[in-house]
Design goal:
6-stranded mixed beta sheet, WD40_repeat_dom_sf, alpha+beta, globular, signal, WD40/YVTN_repeat-like_dom_sf, 36 strands, single chain, 5-stranded antiparallel beta sheet
């Protein structure tokens, strides 16, 4: 191998520094590092070389300076992007786009403002009214009857790792994979103001944006269809049983579970196969080449925790399975741990389903309503440390974060009491009295959904009051987060919103907001 090739291989494995500011997930950092290498290889182009006397290639100082300059530029671009996304998450700047699947035309997914319901203008007016109510705080205003009903709701959703596809499971038993498009009915800007009675936090509301500025008396125009990429249904299936869970296996491949114990694997343009377990599939998670499933019917019988190896096939059988308490209903995973919870107890397992520890995070008078596990911050983690965290929400609105520590005697949770502290992490978060129905987040931020549809953003490190809220999503019951993109239901049954925190380059001076080209 020539000296030039060896040098190029070494440079292409150069890892950018991890001087990322908070509010970016470790997964996103790894994605950005990989994308940096791809861009280095793709964009640098051929390097000038000259033939040496022995026929080999030489790499002169000018080539080296040019290459190092380009590497530095790519690294700087990545860090600027990270800072911008971090700031947008911290201060509430994002755009929104989305779609709904109309039952009248089940083969089409329509972007906001481009055919929401049978009549496009009617659907657009419905969304405008909804947005205005959110902006004015008029969440209880009765909406005009448009003649459309949305009896079918979205029960679960999941983004692909690269944010190019979103999978939806619905209450009628149908499931869809949608390719993410750029159709949009409006942009959403974080308009900050102190909110009375909301923990003194900052509330973010919706505003219409159009080229040339905003207008209170003019409606935003529907974007021309030739300037947008449509949302497309690329796979779907229907059965008679409500979809209870969905997870991304990798790429455009997803798995769903239903209330009758069937696990379907679906990908673009096809439904591969289904596995029948016989018990209702309560939760599905994918981790390190495996699928973890929690199944159970209640009725006095224990639930089952199963692990399947990927890839799945019709002949797949569980690699491991154990019995867990009957009322085990929640499941969360990290790369090396599995978490389950009953109404009062959290159990921690390794990926071989060996028990590590268990604990009761909340007061016995409260019931755990949702569970989320957080990978450690890889940039801050030392070789001998383990900073895996688990976040739990309850039916009375409590939201707590615990750390799982490795001790000489095994694993244990920390803190043990509310007045104790975690290193670099917050333990308690101020919410409302409404039950918490979903939690997502990473090592820098935690996002919770209340039963009334309020979405709250917290700093995972500082805790306390929320940074801001998303209001007006009265129907919001589930969301997913990958990198700078968050997907949620809400506003109305059947609507799906994609909140893009990487699309705005904001100047936080005099309220100016500059959009990226």
């Amino acid at each position: 191998m020539s000296a030039t090739i060896i040098l190029l291989l070494a440079l292409l494995h150069f890892s950018p520094s991890h001087s990322f500011v908070p509010l970016i997930s470790p997964h996103n950092v790894r994605q950005q590092t990989a994308s940096s290498r791809i861009r280095i290889a793709r964009n640098f182009g051929p390097l000038s070389s000259s033939s040496s006397s022995d026929g080999g290639d030489s790499f002169n100082n000018s080539d080296m300076k040019s290459l190092m300059s380009r590497i530095s530029n790519v690294r700087d671009d990545e860090e600027r992007l990270s800072r911008r996304i971090s700031r947008n998450f911290l201060e509430g700047y994002w755009t929104v786009r989305g779609f709904m699947i109309t039952d009248s035309v089940p083969s089409e997914a329509s972007g906001f403002g481009l055919g929401l319901v049978a009549d496009a203008s009617e659907g657009f007016n419905m969304m405008k009214q909804r947005i205005r109510q959110a902006a004015n705080g008029e969440f209880d205003v009765e909406e005009e009857d448009t003649g459309e009903t949305f009896d079918v709701g979205i029960s679960v959703m999941a983004l692909s790792e690269d944010n190019t596809h979103v999978a939806l499971g619905r209450t009628d038993g149908s499931a869809f994979i949608i390719s993410v498009g750029s159709e949009s009915f409006a942009s959403i800007i974080g308009k900050e103001f102190l909110s009375e009675g909301d923990n003194g936090g900052v509330k973010t509301v919706y505003r219409f944006e159009r080229e040339g500025g905003t207008s209170d008396d003019e409606d935003p125009e529907v974007p021309p269809s030739d300037k947008t990429t449509p949302f497309d249904i690329v796979a779907q299936f229907e059965n008679d049983n409500e979809i209870t869970c969905v997870a991304n296996v990798g790429g455009d491949v997803f798995v769903t579970g239903d209330c009758k114990g069937t696990i379907h694997q679906i990908r673009v343009e096809t439904v591969d196969f289904s596995l029948s377990h016989g018990e209702s599939v309560k939760a599905l998670k994918c981790v390190e080449g495996k699928i973890v499933a929690l199944c159970g019917n209640g009725e006095g019988a224990e639930s089952t925790l199963l692990i399947y190896s990927l890839p799945l096939s019709e002949a797949s059988v569980p690699e491991r399975e154990i019995k867990v308490p009957e009322d085990t209903v929640h499941l969360a995973v990290t790369s090396d741990k599995i978490f389950t919870s009953t109404s009062t107890n959290v159990a921690v397992w390794d990926t071989d389903l060996e028990s590590l520890c268990d604990f009761k995070p909340h007061d016995p008078s409260e019931s755990i309503s949702c569970l989320h596990a957080i990978e450690p911050d890889m940039a801050m983690r030392s070789d001998d440390s383990d900073e895996t965290c688990v976040v739990t929400g309850t039916n009375k609105g409590s939201l707590l974060q615990h750390q799982i520590l490795k001790t000489p005697k095994g694993y244990a949770h920390w803190p043990l009491m509310k007045n104790q502290r975690m290193k670099r992490k917050a333990h308690t978060f101020k919410t409302s009295e409404f039950p918490i129905v979903d939690i997502k987040g990473d090592w820098s931020k935690i996002i919770s959904v209340d039963e009334d549809g309020t979405v709250r953003f917290f700093s995972a490190n500082k805790g306390g009051d929320c940074l801001y809220t998303m209001d007006g999503l009265d129907e919001c019951s589930c969301l997913d987060l990958k990198g700078d993109l968050m997907v949620s239901n809400g506003m109305e049954k059947g609507f799906v919103c994609l909140h893009d925190f990487g699309a705005i380059d904001a100047k936080i001076e005099f309220g100016e907001v500059d959009y990226l080209d």
